[in-house]
Amino acid sequence: MRHCSDGRAVIHFRAAGVVLLLAHLLLVGWLTLRPLDVPWVTAANLRPFDGIRADLALGPGEAVRRIGEGLVLLAPLGVLLPMAGGRVLVSPWASLARTVAAGALLSSAIELGQTGVPGQVVDVDSILLNTAGVALAHLLVVPVSRARLRRANRAGAGDPARLTGESRAVRSEAPHEAPGEVSQGKTPTISRVGIAP
């Protein structure tokens, strides 16, 4: 019974991640791809770090605001993408690489989409800042959260094999079974049937 409730909790966790991810993407789309009615726009920035240098030249307060906006825009993806994936046991580096790559691709798609939107300006530094924000959010939240989930699963279930996805049939072949657990026997096999010529 505990196994079923853990399975439902994972499904609810993943479902919440998907819903929050979709809500965040809708907000980002509305913020970045809606036409703006402005009297003039700056030229597109296609040289890395030129926009960041221009922001720094505006003074510390304005630089922090502009660079912070770039870092924060897609930062929730660093947490929501792994949450929607719902995996607890995964390589931290593979998870980081997948999440950062997805963030960079999404940021690039937004910048490409902005080429046809009045009032929006393409800036390659936005891709860099958005991707850095995704990476920072992932590094600050995901490893700690996964470690807590693993500890909670081990403590609550008392069965680390469930986390690794090991099937009950394979565990039942172990020489020493937990008290109260009933052996289900060997897994049936199908005999081979020859193919007619």
Automatic annotation (TrEMBL):
Pfam families: VanZ. The chain crosses the membrane at residues 12-33. InterPro entries: Teicoplanin_resist-assoc (IPR053150), VanZ-like (IPR006976). Residues 168-179 have a biased composition (Basic and acidic residues). Residues 153-197 are annotated as: Disordered. It comes from the Bacteria. The keyword Transmembrane helix applies. Keywords: Membrane, Transmembrane, Transmembrane helix. Residues 22-141 form the VanZ-like domain. The keyword Endoplasmic reticulum does not apply. This is VanZ family protein.
